[in-house]
Amino acid sequence: MLRPLYTLLWHLALPLLPLRLWWRGRREPGYRESIGERFGRYGPPPAGPVIWLHAVSLGETRAAQPLVRALRSRFPDHALVVTHMTATGREAARSLYGDFATFAFLPYDLPWAVRRFVAHFRPQLGVVMETEVWPNLVRACRAAGVPVLLANARLSEKSARGYARVATLARAALADFAAIGAQTAADAERLAALGARTVEVTGNLKFDVTPPADTEARAAALRALCGERAVFLAASTREGEEALLLDALARAPLPAGALTVIVPRHPQRFDEVAELLARRGLAFVRRSEARAVPADCGFVLGDSMGEMSAYYAAADVAFVGGSLLPFGAQNLIEACAVGAPVLIGPSTFNFTAAAAEAVRCGAAVQVEDAAGLVREAARLLADAGARAWMGEAGEGFCAAHRGATARTMAIVTRLVADR
């Protein structure tokens, strides 16, 4: 009975969905684009056979890069359709894959909308990144004979408890996937316990993501703007974390001359964080101004897109945001990959295994709160040897966990051959 109830709730919400998109579009205009796609209405499909990849948002879009390269190499005659639910994910995909892919918003999980999507693009294969489980979508794909792989799948204990509350619906949806590639053995066990049929441990695709080719040049340019000053980076910060950090810095400043660079996770918050700094009377320079940081200025607001690897490479010490407050942390692997000494807060449920292993091998230090974060940052800024050791440990940590792309492609090749 859960699936009909689930579908009924979607239909009851239907009149509100365009209003929600319009509301979100106040801060992110991309939500007001291509609204028809949310209901299964698209322009002409690409010519030839199609492989469809769904990456809900920014993080999944970036994580998919090595898999996209492998798919294009293995299936050069197939068109790639990339779908998203968020405007930031779509924008990121355009910058990464804009010269070869077709982009669309995934429809809401209404049976008639998802059937339109499948009938329109007629994919030979679907690849859904991480934990995007839409029951009506995967059922429509299965009915149409389209195998769907849940790739880079992760399921935290908290999320597993949530799915368990709708166990019948979750079991049916997971069983509709042709295969599932889990990041860790613990993820695989939780997915299997919920009813997933074919689960393999493939590892985390984020370890296979390589920094952009221009990372070193961009990092050098950033360092040049900062001068000879030590740089503490607060990367991918989420709502409320900047205030906690600024409070802690007010109580215990970093060593004299140190520069704090704050890069909010979401671009729609750039102006919000600028206002926070201004209200506190803190001198800052915006990265978008592309000018040297004055000696009496203690902060840089990283309000640019596509430079995260460069920010990490330019930093002496890097805090990975989303971990001071219960957001589950952003991607610390990206920081380790360029040899940045990493600090993370207590909330890491999005990267539980990776965070624990990074701490264990010495690539990262976990702190309990903002005061501990500033204290550890000051310690590392004063100890070049410790920073160098952590950077080397981070690079080794990433190298030891690569290979998820090859394991995922083995599943993809099998699914296509079985059609």
Low-confidence stretches: none
Coarse morphology: globular
Largest sheet: 7 strands, parallel
The number of distinct β-strands equals 14
Radius of gyration: 22 Å
Key structural traits:
419 residues; alpha/beta; Rossmann fold; 2 domains; 19 helices; 14 strands; 15% strand
Describe what you observe in this structure.
The radius of gyration is 22 Å and the shape is globular. The mean pLDDT is 95. Helix 4 (65-74) packs across helix 19 and helix 6 packs across helix 7 (135-143). By secondary structure, the protein is α/β, with parallel strands linked by helices. The protein has helices at 2-13, 17-24, 58-63, 65-74, 87-97, 111-121, 135-143, 157-164, 167-175, 185-194, 215-226, 241-251, 270-279, 308-314, 333-337, 352-360, 370-381, 384-400, 404-417, and strands spanning 50-54, 79-84, 102-105, 125-129, 148-153, 179-182, 199-201, 231-237, 259-264, 284-286, 299-301, 317-320, 342-344, 364-366. It has two domains: 2-203 and 403-417, Rossmann fold, CATH 3.40.50; 215-400, Glycogen Phosphorylase B (Rossmann fold, 3-Layer(aba) Sandwich).
Short description:
It contains 19 helices and 14 strands. It is an alpha/beta fold and 419 residues long. It folds into two domains: 2-203 and 403-417, Rossmann fold (3-Layer(aba) Sandwich); 215-400, Rossmann fold.
Please specify the SSE layout and strand pairing.
Blueprint lengths: L1 H12 L3 H8 L25 E5 L3 H6 L1 H10 L4 E6 L2 H11 L4 E4 L5 H11 L3 E5 L5 H9 L4 E6 L3 H8 L2 H9 L3 E4 L2 H10 L4 E3 L13 H12 L4 E7 L3 H11 L7 E6 L5 H10 L4 E3 L12 E3 L6 H7 L2 E4 L12 H5 L4 E3 L7 H9 L3 E3 L3 H12 L2 H17 L3 H14 L2
Parallel strand pairs: 1-2, 1-4, 2-3, 4-5, 5-6, 6-7, 8-9, 8-12, 9-11, 10-11, 12-13, 13-14
Helix pairs in contact: 4-19, 6-7, 7-9, 11-14, 12-17
